[in-house]
Model the fold of this input.
Amino acid sequence: MSVVQHTPDLRGTFRHAVSSAWVVTSAYDEVPVGFTAISVVSVSVSPPLVSFNLSKTSSSRTTIERSGRVALHLLADHQEHLAHRFAGDRNRRFEPDGEWHWHPDGLPALRDAVCRLDSRVVALTDAGDSFVVIAQVEAQETSGGRPLMHHHGSYHASPTDRLAEEAYR
Done:
C-alpha cells in the first residue's frame, strides 16, 4: 500500500532516482568556482541546450551570473572524491593537486571527466529556493569512460557492459 503525503518530501522522493554526477565550474577575474550537481539534463538538441539547478545561496551564484559561462563535467566512475570535494568546503575545491587546470577557454577544467561541455548561460529562471540555469553548449570534449552515478545519497560506479547485458536478458 502506498502512503499519501500532503506535505511532499521531494528530496526524499528523488533519492530513489538514479542520476549522473556532474561538476559545474565557472570563473570570473581568474577566480574559479564550482559545485557538484546531479540535476543536469539535456533540454534541446537544436540549439544544444542543457539545464541544471543552482541554489540561491550557492557560493558560485555571483560568479556564474557575472561570467555568463559554465563548464559542465560528467564525472567518471573513479572520481567520487571530486564529487565529494565540490560538494564540500568551497575553499578546498580548487587545490593545486593536478585534478584540474585552466582550459584555453578561460574556465576551470577537471582532468579525466567522461565529457566536458563548455557552455554560455542563456537563462536564469527563478524556481523556489533555486534557479534553473539554461546554458547553450558551445564546445564539447569527450574522453569516454563510465560515468559516476548518484543514488539514495551515495555515489556508485556505473555497471559494466557485461552486467548491463545480463540484466536485459
In short: The chain has a mean pLDDT of 88.
